[in-house]
Design goal:
Number of strands of chain B: 0
Helix content of chain B: over 70%
Number of helices of chain A: 11
Shape of chain A: elongated
Distance between the termini of chain B: 34 Å
Oligomer: heterodimer
Largest sheet of chain A: 6 strands, mixed
CATH topology of the largest domain in chain A: Rossmann fold
Largest interface: A-B, 66 and 49 residues
Number of domains of chain B: 1
Radius of gyration of chain A: 24 Å
CATH architecture of the largest domain in chain A: 3-Layer(aba) Sandwich
Helix content of chain A: 25-40%
Number of domains of chain A: 2
Order of helices and strands of chain A: EEEHEHEHHHEHEHEEHEHEEHEH
Number of strands of chain A: 13
Largest sheet of chain B: none
Structural class of chain A: alpha/beta
CATH superfamily of the largest domain in chain A: P-loop containing nucleotide triphosphate hydrolases
Bound molecules: adenosine-5'-diphosphate, magnesium ion
Shape of chain B: elongated
CATH class of the largest domain in chain A: Alpha Beta
Distance between the termini of chain A: 38 Å
Structural class of chain B: mainly alpha
């Protein structure tokens, strides 16, 4: 169980994490999503006590991480891939960490086997590929058989086999009753593994939801209309409060603020010809892009922040 | 490999032993780290060779000088070139300062190497209270290096003395010789701890080595050349001069025994304590 409560971290003038609150529950995989620079890694560092929050609280298993007396058993984390001395062997690296809590050497060999590094256990890490480094990071995270697993962009640098393997691993860890937090900047990856999503942008919480809910929330976004009288239809639509943007062709409109049936009825009432009318299918990827684009370019109406970022977004964005 | 099911047992029940993080465990962990790097053993090897080697050359050089002096002034009988046998012993020991520098580098790398490679993240995740990490590194360095330093200091003296004629040489059993050997060994361990403290303060290998070179090497020899009185006085409070003031000396000791001991302890502990405070306070 991970609880972030009003977490805020500023580096000088830069606010990396801004009043972030969320919970990661045992038995499920929580995807931590956001574009690069959204504050995912910083949040994980705050959760692990590596960086001190400017304000707010980070609790793991009900306590601050540094108050745990056997922390590796509580939380296993992969932060930076290959953050290992290149001159040390994978086994020695794991063994040195295992020693801090009296974890037996047998467990080191077990996790090496689990991630498929047994054959190179005694090779120097400097000779590892990015994917092997990533596997070593995962072995490190699993070393203490922790109740909470936290992985920062674990699929980076893995080949397709490795990506599949990680998915299975994460599902398995959650099925065993662990709380799993995995960050990614790719929705496509999270859609396949996560039960729950915590989406951040510019350090702020954008969504704390399930995959299904997120799609539902963004569905019905826009309707594509093709009509030889597109100009007139656009005026009619404006009259009922919908927004029609011209599409790629002169007879194309992209309509927001009105569902497809209403648009059809409106056109019929005014005797306008329609050649095409369909709701834009929202993929999870679109939902995510919409969500994070909003956070990058302008602020969503509901949750305007206490203090806007200095380097915030271009002015005059619509809405 | 590549089983999709992780073969771990339900959360928290696998055979991972049961243990809280304690200082003794962290010392073991640090030993695993130190011993698993080739650079540790290389540095120690070069330290031994350089420490004994330079002293050997110094002894041989002194012997040559004595011979030349004796050839010029036949009934010399006594030590050459105005240097007494005690001063000869002290000057042989003082040549170990080059090797001592290497132990400073070893100490600095123990921390700065972790920052450079990112290992510190894993280390502090395993030991989130942090201070045991630096304390364990200090304890470990002192334990491992003390015997090595004693052997190198002793061998350096014996190797250097072995070239000198009997009339000009001293052995470990002579007054003040053992004390000087121990003092130089102490300066070596102190320098390693100084390097460790600097590594924790500066988090940079290059920065730490720069300060080490200045303190260990340049300050004692160079600062007096500026001719500024208070600077010259200040420059005596360094590990090398402190070690040179204990036991047999090249002249009047620069520091009293108390001053010398405090100087050694100070260089070992003050940077280390400052590093400890910063380690607790700073973001990792
Ligand atoms: N130590 C630091 N000093 C200054 N800025 C930082 C530091 N760490 C992160 N940042 C900034 O904070 C923001 C969030 O970074 P990060 O947490 O790494 O994002 P993410 O992991 O989501 O890509 C970025 O703008 C980054 O430049
Ligand atoms: Mg990141």
């Amino acid at each position: 169980m991970i609880e972030a409560r009003g977490l805020t971290k500023r580096y000088g003038a830069k606010t990396a994490v801004d009043d972030l609150s969320f919970t990661v529950r045992p038995g499920s995989v929580t995807g931590f999503l956001g574009p690069n620079g959204a504050g995912k890694s910083t949040t994980m560092r705050l959760l692990l006590g590596l960086d001190r929050p400017t304000s707010g609280q980070a609790l793991v298993g009900g306590k601050r991480y540094r108050d745990h007396r056997a922390p590796l058993r509580e939380v296993g984390a992969l932060l930076e891939a290959r953050a290992v001395h290149p001159g040390r062997s994978a086994r020695a690296h794991l063994l040195s960490l295992a020693r801090t809590e009296g974890v037996p050497a047998r467990r080191v060999d077990e996790v090496l086997d689990l991630v498929g590094l047994t054959a190179v256990a005694r090779k120097r890490v400097g000779s590892f590929s990015l994917g092997m480094g990533q596997r070593l990071g995962i072995a490190t995270a699993l070393l203490g058989d922790p109740a909470v697993v936290m992985l920062d962009e674990p699929v980076n640098g893995l080949d397709p086999d490795g990506v599949l393997w990680i998915r299975g691993l994460l599902r398995g860890l959650a099925a065993e009753g662990r709380a799993v937090l995995v960050s990614s900047h790719l929705m496509s990856e999270m859609a396949l593994t996560a039960d729950h999503l915590v989406v951040v942008g510019r350090g702020r919480l954008l969504a704390d939801t399930t995959v299904e809910e997120l799609v539902a929330r963004t569905r019905g976004g826009s309707v594509v209309v093709r009509s030889p009288q597109a100009q007139r239809l656009a005026v009619m639509l404006a009259g009922v409060g919908a927004v029609a943007r011209p599409g790629d062709a002169p007879d194309l409109l992209e309509v927001r603020g009105a569902e497809a049936p209403r648009i059809g009825e409106l056109a019929a009432r005014h005797g306008l010809v329609l050649h095409e009318l369909h709701a834009q299918q929202t993929s999870l990827e679109d939902a995510y892009m919409t969500l994070t684009r909003d956070s990058r370019e302008y602020l969503t109406d509901g949750d305007s922040p206490a203090q806007p970022d200095l380097d915030a977004a271009p002015a005059g964005a619509p809405r | 490999m590549s089983t999709t099911r992780p073969s771990t047992s339900p959360a928290g029940t696998a055979g991972t032993g049961s243990g809280r993080v304690g200082l003794a465990r962290v010392v073991r962990s640090e030993w695993t780290k130190l011993a698993s790097l080739r650079s540790t053993w290389m540095l120690l090897l070069v330290f031994v060779l350089l420490g004994v080697g330079v002293a050997t050359l110094a002894g041989w050089g002194s012997a040559q000088a004595i011979e030349a002096t004796e050839a010029g002034t036949p009934p010399a009988g006594g030590p050459p070139g105005g240097l007494g046998r005690e001063a000869l012993a002290a000057s042989i020991l003082s040549t170990t300062s080059l090797a001592t520098l290497l132990l400073g580098v070893l100490g600095a790398l123990a921390v700065s190497g972790e920052y450079a490679t990112g290992t510190m993240t894993a280390t502090l995740t395993a030991v989130p209270r942090r201070w045991p990490v630096l304390v364990a590194k200090a304890v470990l360095l002192a334990l491992v290096l003390a015997p090595v330093a004693l052997v190198v200091s002793g061998l350096a003296l014996l190797a250097g003395e072995s070239f000198l004629p009997e009339s000009a040489s001293l052995g470990l059993q002579d007054d003040g010789v053992l004390a000087a050997v121990v003092a130089h060994a102490a300066a070596m361990v102190v320098t390693a701890l100084l390097g460790l403290g600097l590594g924790a303060l500066l988090r940079s290998t290059a920065g730490s080595i720069t300060v080490l070179v200045v303190v260990v090497f340049l300050a004692p020899g160079l600062v007096p050349l500026f001719g500024v009185d208070w600077l010259t006085t200040a420059s005596q409070y360094v590990p090398a001069t402190a070690a040179g003031s204990l036991g047999v000396t090249t002249g009047e000791p620069a520091l009293t025994t108390t001053e010398a001991v405090l100087t050694l302890v100070g260089w070992a502990l003050v940077p280390l304590l400052a590093g400890l405070v910063l380690l607790q306070r700073r973001d990792a």
